[in-house]
Amino acid sequence: MSTMTMEDIESEEVKNLQIEFEWVMRDEVHSILKKLREILMECARRFPVPLYDNEGKRTEKFHLVAAQDQLKCTVTLTGDSITQADISFKLKRSSSQVQRTTITSDAPWKLQQVQDAANHLQQAINHIDNVDENYKFRSSEEVLQIIGELIGALQRGRTSLIIPKKKSIEDLMNSRNMKSLAPNLPEDQAISFFLQCHKLIIAVYQLLNVQGTMKMEATQAECSVGWLNDVLVLFTVGLTLCQQLKDKMNAFKMDTLS
């Protein structure tokens, strides 16, 4: 009866790891990429802009109201643009005065964040499509490179919806979107629409002269947007899948197999 030495056990383990590594490289990486592509295509279908096989621009209506009716806004969102809005807000310097303005379909207000996120998503799907389904991966570095590109694109897409770009009051007042407002606002006021997580937010900024010092006051109103929530969940599911594969490849690298 032969007893296995420590060396035998180690070499058996190495052999098993090698077999598992080859299986992962040959089959599992491809099946994960395929599954990831399905998740990302599902994500693309939720976007309200033409992306792959979704039907394109959807129209939805939203009501945004701030506390004590400081700010009220009815918005029609078509694709990545606000095609209609009725906005009214109370002026900070006199609570009885109300400022009103509108957006019409002649000059829509573009939500750049939607297009940015869609572009990054498209980039991620392109990275997967660039890998031939019969391609034989030769090293864990090769797989890690693709996962790195995918994680980068998905994180950028998710971030563009979660964190709106910071803008100065001057940028806001001079933004191209401000020209969508009819009538135009006085020079000491600005409006901004942006997405943050699953919400559409309107912010009104008013410059006030308080005892000789210019001060900016902001009022916000928000509402939930269903498809944004779905998109963010799918981005997160995709990122988790990438991270799991990345951890697995790094574990093989630790075993110095590639």
Automatic annotation (TrEMBL):
Domain of life: Eukaryota
Pfam families membership: Rogdi_lz
Record GO cellular component, one term: RAVE complex
Recorded family membership: Belongs to the rogdi family.
Protein name: Protein rogdi
Native organism: Stomoxys calcitrans
Underlying gene: 106086915
